[in-house]
Design a protein that fits this description.
- By secondary structure, the chain is of the alpha/beta class.
- It folds into two domains: about 190 residues, 3-Layer(aba) Sandwich (Rossmann fold), CATH 3.40.50.2000; about 170 residues, Glycogen Phosphorylase B (Rossmann fold).
- The strands form three sheets. Strands 3-4-2-1-7-8-9-10 form an eight-stranded mixed β-sheet, sandwiched between helices. Strands 13-12-11-14-15-16 form a six-stranded parallel β-sheet, with helices on both faces.
- Helix 1 crosses helix 15.
- The chain starts with a strand and ends in a 16-residue tail after the last helix.
- GO terms for molecular function: hexosyltransferase activity.
- This is Glycosyltransferase family 1 protein.
- One of its GO terms (biological process) is carbohydrate derivative biosynthetic process.
Length: about 375
Amino acid sequence: MRVALVSESFLPQVNGVTNTVRHVVDRLVATGHQALVVAPGPGPDHYGPTPVVRVRSATLPGYRSFALGLPDRRVGTALAGFRPDLVHLASPVSLGACGLRAARRLGVPALAVYQTDLAGFAHRYGVPVGGLLDAWVGGLHRRADRTLVPSAASRAQLAALGVGGLHLWGRGVELALFDPRHRSDDLHARWAAGPGTGERVVVGYVGRLAAEKNLHRLAEVSRIPGVDVVVVGDGPLRHRLERLLPAATFTGMLRGPELARAFTSLDVFVHPGEDETFCQTVQEAQASGVPVVAAGAGGPLDLVEHLVTGLLYDPADPRSLRRSVARLAGDPLLRRSLGRAGRAAVQGRTWEALVDRLVTEHYLPLARPSVPAGPVRPRRAA
């Protein structure tokens, strides 16, 4: 099968959309399929053996590291040259709209994967365009042949926008990478260096440092006696958070084994965000055997069973987050129980299994055979 993935984000940007596309391409290639990625530039023009066609992009004010794809004729040209059996639209917005139009011109089915709550993000950034964004995103997904959503909350959100044909498709987790065996007592000891003589508890956040993650609430966590805060990641809020949390440890962006070691060396993982369509880092913490505290809203509702595989705090209660973290900080037996149950809950959620299911349950029922095509020669964005 020939699959063209039109993605709003790809390497070198690192985020949930990029990681999902990367794992989909890895598995497609490993199982004998051919893939093409169309993504905003600049960036590498190949991902392994897979061509990456780079199109025009612009940076967002206040978030210079994020490239927003712009309408570009190269999308249609690339798809016409590749002659896909199916077009996969990864978190479609502006570039996804171009991909959808190109798929329609070619008579090729388009599958859309919903992944980003743009209206929620706009609200967090104080931009009053949520209604317009919902209308745009809803219109894109209504025109796609099928839409995949990562959680029950996302399904309800799109259904309210009049989108039908919704199918639940979650995310995989790298169980060999995120494993409790990678815990480093030395790293934990360096982080647990706060004042006092009692046992210190290391509470950490992992992810992008951006407004939609509600990271200002880590200040509440930092005031819990006996707790040391670690922040793993980077983003536009880093300097502000460093001023807000002067005693916290900021590691910057970590990847691969370093990231896995950081995850499993935490005592508690906390994610304050309320607008997550899925929340992949919750799964990664669970795979690492680390108890989770997450918002009782959005994607975490599908991932965390309260008091079984983690704790869900009430976003409407201003004291709930602190109470939840303090409860775990003071109860090592509960931490151990939730960590073990969280690890057990994600067994079987490998990327290989998730992508195989994507192919058999969604790609194959939609795909149409195509004639052979020559190699795609990607061009960099101007």
